[in-house]
Amino acid sequence: MIKEKINLPEAFCQRMREFLGDEAEEFFASYAKEREYGLRYNPLKFKTKNEFEAKLQKELGYSLSPVSWCTEGYYYDRQMQPGKHPWHEAGAYYIQEPSAMSAVELLEPAPGGKICDLCAAPGGKTTQIAGKMLGQGLLVANEFYSSRAKALAQNVERLGIANTVVLNETTGHLAEVFPEFFDQILVDAPCSGEGMFRKEPQAVGEWSLDNVALCAGRQQDILGHAAKMLKPQGVLVYSTCTFAPEENEQNINLFLQMHPEFSLEKFCRLWPHKLRGEGHFLARLRKEGIADEPDKACGDDMAGKQRQKRRASKDKEAVRVEAAAAGFRRFQEEALQIDLQEKLCGKYVLFADELYLLPEQMIQLSGLKVVRAGLHLGTCKKNRFEPSHALALYLQPEEASRSVELADENEGAMRYLHGETVSCDSGLKGWTLVCVDGLSLGWGKANNGVVKNHYPKGLRICY
Prior knowledge:
- The chain is an alpha+beta fold.
- It contains 15 helices and 21 strands.
- Residues 294-307 have low confidence and may be disordered.
């Protein structure tokens, strides 16, 4: 395959020659090479890395090589096209540029904490954090642009994540609502995208020195808001996919001058001529001080006077929520082998007729633009409860009372994803989890040896 030549802006080239000196020509030569392709396996779907590798080799025959800086990361050959395989729709892995996996590794998330991905769309780093949290704790993923926030929520759903709240907010508003609330914050800041010129050549035409300056100012605002949201002793990781010092070292230096309570623990650059990936900048900072116990009040607790005025409406809403929860519990008793509320330690919340299980560590949602409030359980319809696609993707096959493994595996999975019916044992009746290779794909309703397809129409695949 002949790689199309990338015409880099002269002002960019001049700066990089001054910055890199003797290494500049090697750096420019990397643009003539083919980019690397990567994916991360989903720890929420596989118990161990060895299980993923063994199952991948047995069922798909794929051969992958590990990304050295990411535990769950692999390089793949572009000819594999993993995005077109049913495993992708089942959330078995997330396709992600290898260098982009580095920021979450530097953050070092773990189960049980309260973490914020402040600039989260399309969801690569959010889903990576969630995988390391193993469903324990609270992850708040925010995206300012509504269309991108929806895409973020879809990726969270596809990977079967239950402990994530997706918001569509300004970082300034979040700083007011979540004062010193989070243990860890990731700021993968919107940037001029210089590190993506090889992966996304269209970014070259959008580049300018003015845009670099504009991005640097925006990044300072976001960092300032993140500082207010982080607990003392909390960790803040800042990352960009650009080479511009104004957006990287200079921004971190300015932030440290303005926020002396922070210290720099580590920083690094990833260069495309030195590793198998694109260009990135990373910095890990820690906020000094002593954390208060219990957490400082936030959210609705900041508005005590308004709380009393809303009490009557809240009581009325509580009745609606309980009625919806009762409908779900009836469905759960008939269709599931687990008690979800007990397993996830969440609280029921209702948006119109849509029932969610909200992580217990999350504050009140009033006053926030919520795209996804934890795990979407389903829709409360007249005299019945209809489970959501998100619930299907969250469940393991053994957690459902009825499941059907597609007999002809990939071909059968593609027919299901297209919207066709599935055959099953004549004894099955009711809501049934449809699976491929032990991975849940979605819901169907079994009766008389046939499973009626309930895969969402908007997600169905044409072939």
